[in-house]
Amino acid sequence: MSRQEEIIRFWLEDVGPKGWYRVDPEVDAEITKRFKPDWEAAHAGDLHDWPTNPQGALAFLILTDQFPRNMFRDDWRAFATDAAARGVAKQSIEQHFDMRYPEPERQFFYLPLMHSECLMDQDRCVRLMLTRMPETGAENLLHAKAHRELIRRFGRFPFRNAALHRGSSDEEQTFLESGGYAACVEELRAAAS
């Protein structure tokens, strides 16, 4: 089995949908043990040949967008390969690599845009969740809208400030102390119902 196949199988099958967004120290430790050297290679620019096909692109996106958030919680490295993931995501979407995967796996081509602190990327992510995730995208769409709302309000994600050693404005501090991201999601959920 290739490294690309191993990454995809681990994330899609071993961790699976129930584990993708749950904080689990055991999963974090397993990702770090098995895949940190691959992430370091991607961070160094050594895996530039991976995104030339759908499988390689998906493996690269999981490795550079999902895994660092598990390996480096509350650390700046959680976001260190976001730009690389975003570039590959955009290229892959243009080449329709995303459409070679079923839902909900397809979302991993769009999450780098959701993780971006650029409003244009946020708008694009919302559109993609609407148009390319019609069967399973409702919950993702809610989170895409919540991320976009935060970028509209603050121009960045306040919940990253500590990890990135950025100071928080008074408005951001109030937001963080008033429920933060979870409160934003619930406001949007209530407004939609």
Describe this structure in words.
- This protein has helices at residues 3-19, 25-43, 54-71, 82-94, 111-114, 119-132, 138-154, 170-177, 180-192.
- The chain starts with a helix and ends with a helix.
- It has a domain at 3-115.
- The longest helix is centred in the N-terminal third of the chain and has 19 residues, at 25-43.
- The mean pLDDT is 96.
- It has nine helices and no strands.
- Helix content is 64%, strand content 0%.
- It has 193 residues and is mainly α.
Topology:
Layout: H1 3-19, H2 25-43, H3 54-71, H4 82-94, H5 111-114, H6 119-132, H7 138-154, H8 170-177, H9 180-192
Strand content: under 5%
Portion in helices: 55-70%
- Distance between termini? 46 Å
The gross shape turns out to be: globular
Question: Helix and strand succession?
Answer: HHHHHHHHH
Radius of gyration: 16 Å
Structural class: mainly alpha
Number of strands: 0
Structure at a glance:
This protein has 193 residues and is mostly helical. It contains nine helices and no strands. The mean pLDDT is 96.
Quickly list its features.
193 residues, mainly alpha
